[in-house]
Design brief:
The complex is a heterodimer of chains A (400) and B (253).
Chain A lengths: L6 E2 L6 E3 L41 H4 L9 E5 L5 E5 L12 H9 L3 E6 L9 E20 L4 E22 L4 E9 L5 E10 L4 E10 L2 E10 L5 E10 L4 E10 L5 E10 L5 E10 L7 E10 L5 E10 L6 E10 L2 H8 L5 H20 L2 H29 L2
Parallel strand pairs in A: 1-17, 5-6, 6-7, 7-8, 7-9, 8-10, 9-11, 10-12, 11-13, 12-14, 13-15, 14-16, 15-17, 16-18
Antiparallel strand pairs in A: 2-18, 3-6, 4-5
Chain B lengths: L2 E13 L2 E14 L3 E5 L6 H9 L4 E10 L2 E2 L5 H7 L1 E4 L6 E5 H13 L5 H14 L10 E2 L5 H15 L3 E5 L7 H15 L5 E6 L12 E6 L2 E6 L1 H10 L2 H7 L2
Parallel strand pairs in B: 3-10, 3-11, 6-9, 9-10
Antiparallel strand pairs in B: 1-2, 1-4, 4-5, 7-8, 11-12
Helix pairs in contact in B: 4-5, 5-6
Classes of the chains: A alpha/beta (400), B alpha/beta (253).
The site of adenosine-5'-triphosphate (ATP) has 14 residues of chain B, from strand 1, strand 2 and helix 1.
Protein name (chain A): Iron-regulated ABC transporter permease protein SufD
InterPro entries (chain A): Fe-S_cluster_assembly_SufBD, SUF_FeS_clus_asmbl_SufBD_core, SUF_FeS_clus_asmbl_SufBD_sf, SUF_FeS_clus_asmbl_SufD
Organism (chain A): Kribbella kalugense
């Protein structure tokens, strides 16, 4: 079989920039943000921020009209966590950066706030399940971790339909917050989401985006720092199958001094028209001395007909940084690895699973939430079983 | 008795200019209890022979047969060949990121035996095999071949040989890249395997150095895709003294 129908694109090869070697880029921070939908025209797909996205299929989420349903939101959590309904504009840590986010902001109505009280150390994860019921709806969540608190919040997006969402995250000074956002909607579901996080002084945010299902899922994650010593670990795992588009856009804005960011996103793709997009923008402003940042995106293309785009952008306005680098690589499944494992008696399917789980192993290990990692392992197994069926039937058709 | 029989094996690879024949009629029989050495100049097709027996998809067998105890090896998938009792220690072992050596070894052993090894004895066996090859037990937690030195990769191949315990082992230049101490350690491992009885060893090498530690019963000189001459250990000594020149001249058409 020819591999010419597989397009694999990587924006930049692995390399890193030390202090004093800025990359010329369109200033990321100059992009408009607004609470007013009218400030964003309906995208036509030629805009920088939409050029990788199948905008034609997103008409419903570009329509400035009330939702036709209210997604069903269920919450649970250990003692100490507080859930309350608040006005949409009660926090304003996030500010919509595109039309769909502005529409979601204006039509979600009130926001659901998850509050972790000051100094509370929660023993179990907080769960927020957002279920789309099959129509067009919006959600708005606020996760507010009080200073010196410690908590895990898992946001699980399921169901069918079209969802526009905003998530605002505040990590209080000295707090440690883990937020896991899982996107596993039905095959035909569409989800456009924006997450904005503000990391406090000496606070630590672990932010994890896990996308396992949905026809089009596009999550934009923006991180800012409220004071020095903040640390953000931004992880992402995705596995796009036939006809699925999984897109992640990150923007880390370093303005405070002595802050860290570490971005690791890994994705697998299998099947015709499986598509992933990863955009990683990191801006180190002139004031952000002592910044340390690294971003990495790796894609594993398992079959012909899949395509991964990966574009890391690093913009450095100060020479006084600790270190900054990025790496991005997209590779096809390595048949030599398969051969090596098979030559040790391991059947092809099991060998394939071993290689793919090996690919995800380090990032899954970093997620640090057992219920999420177990679930991930299970879903990846299911997806690989489907991929194996797919390639078996492809072989049967071509008579190989 | 285990027997690997190779008859008139022709193998080609696909190149931009069409198929290129690399093996041109190889005949070789390796029986249990025997150690064979194949020596030959660079590019003569030694690795091609090893990979073709193991079933690497890059190599197309155009004619000939390979059987193990009468079973058609060429008809088997790569993993089936391994489970039938063939083992290839590779010239360039492959790195498998994210898969630990211990997970890899257990998965392979389970596949070969058809059942999971008993946990308690298995851990002991693995640690012993590592120690025998002078490898730290920490290797168990490292990813397969990732960041291993050239010599560590080769020793790791022999660890696998001992644990998986095949009928026939093909060692493709396991000696290259080893310092003298590592060479002795690896040779001791191969001898330990061979002495289990009814094991066939096909040792592919460039140099006679390893043959000081592993005594072959038969030496085959491999030139231009076929066996040009066969003999006993004395043939290796002649190669040591005179090189391949005599065979290259004879082979040139
Ligand atoms: N894809 C290919 N296209 C063209 N020639 C190839 C290809 N693959 C292998 N060959 C050639 O086949 C020949 C045999 O290679 P092989 O690796 O089997 O040699 P070898 O005897 O193991 O050599 P060495 O001692 O260097 O390990 C070489 O001349 C090599 O260049
Ligand atoms: Mg070779």
């Amino acid at each position: 079989m020819s591999s010419s129908d597989t397009l694999v694109a990587t924006g930049n090869k692995a390399h890193s920039h030390g202090p004093g070697s800025p990359v010329p880029l369109q200033a990321r921070s100059e992009r408009p943000t607004s609470y007013d939908v009218a400030d964003f025209a309906v995208p036509n797909g030629r805009e920088e921020e939409w050029r990788f996205t199948p905008v034609k299929q997103l008409k419903a989420l570009f329509d400035d009209a009330a939702g036709s349903e209210t997604p069903k939101i269920d919450t649970s959590g250990p003692e100490g966590v507080v859930f309350e309904t608040v006005a949409a504009d009660s926090l304003k840590v996030g500010k919509p950066q595109d039309r769909s986010a502005a529409i979601a902001w204006n039509h979600a109505g009130e926001a659901l706030a998850v509050r972790i009280p000051v100094e509370a150390e929660l023993t179990e994860a907080v769960h927020v399940n957002v279920a789309s019921l099959g129509a067009r709806g919006f959600s708005h969540l606020i996760v507010d971790a009080g200073r010196h608190s410690k908590a895990i919040v898992i946001i699980d997006h399921t169901g069918a339909g079209e969802l526009g969402s905003n998530v605002e995250i505040v990590v209080g000074d000295g707090a440690e917050l883990r937020v896991v956002s899982i996107q596993q909607g039905d095959n035909e579901s569409i989800h456009l989401g924006q997450h904005d996080a503000l990391v406090g002084r000496d606070a630590k945010l672990h932010h994890v985006v896990v996308t396992l299902g949905g026809k089009i899922v596009r999550i934009a994650t923006n991180v800012r720092y409220a004071g020095p010593g903040g640390d953000a670990e931004l992880l992402g795992v995705y596995f796009a199958e036939s006809g699925q588009h999984h897109e992640n856009r990150l923007f880390v804005d370093h303005e405070a001094v002595q802050c860290k960011s570490n971005v690791i996103y890994k994705g697998a793709l299998a099947g015709d028209h499986a598509r992933s997009v990863w955009i990683g923008d990191v801006l180190i402003r002139a004031a952000a001395e002592g910044t340390s940042t690294f971003e990495l995106n790796r894609n594993l293309v398992l079959t012909d007909g899949a395509r991964a785009d990966s574009v890391p952008n690093l913009e450095i306005e100060t020479g006084e940084i600790e270190g900054a680098g990025h790496a991005s690589a997209t590779g096809r499944f390595d048949d030599e690895q398969l051969f090596y494992l098979q030559a040790r008696g391991i059947p092809e399917d099991a060998a394939r699973r071993l290689v793919v789980s090996g690919f995800f192993n380090d990032i899954i290990g970093k997620i640090g939430v057992p219920e999420v990692t177990e679930h991930l392992h299970e879903v990846i197994e299911e997806k690989l079983a489907r991929t194996a069926e797919l390639s078996a039937s492809a072989k049967a058709v071509t008579g190989q | 008795m285990a027997t690997l029989e190779i008859r008139d094996l022709h193998v080609s690879v696909d190149t931009e200019n069409g198929p290129k024949e690399i093996l041109r009629g190889v005949d070789l029989t390796i029986a249990g209890g025997q150690t064979h050495a194949i020596m030959g100049p660079n590019g003569s097709g030694k690795s091609t022979l090893a990979y073709s027996i193991a079933g690497h998809p890059k190599y197309n067998v155009t004619s000939g047969t390979v059987t193990l105890d009468g079973e058609d090896v060429l008809d088997m998938k790569v993993d089936e060949r391994a489970r039938a009792g063939l083992f290839l220690a590779m010239q360039y072992p492959v790195e498998v990121p994210g898969v630990t050596v211990s997970n890899f070894l257990r998965t392979a052993k389970t596949a070969i035996d058809g059942e999971a090894p008993k946990l308690r004895t298995w851990v002991k066996d693995v640690n012993k095999a590592l120690a025998d090859l002078d490898m730290d037990p920490d290797f168990g937690q490292r990813n397969v071949n990732e960041g291993f030195s050239g010599g560590e990769k080769k020793r790791h191949e022999i660890v696998q040989l001992e644990l998986l315990d095949p009928k026939i082992a093909i060692l493709d230049e396991t000696d290259s890249g080893l310092d003298i101490d590592a060479l002795k350690i690896v040779s001791t491992g191969v001898n330990r395997f061979a002495e289990k009885g009814d094991k066939g060893v096909l040792l592919i090498t460039h140099y006679t150095r390893i043959l000081r530690y592993i005594t072959p019963d038969f030496v085959h000189v491999f030139v231009d895709g076929r066996v040009a001459e066969e003999g006993g250990p004395e043939l290796a000594e002649e190669l040591e003294a005179n090189g391949y020149e005599r065979f290259l001249k004879a082979g040139a058409k």
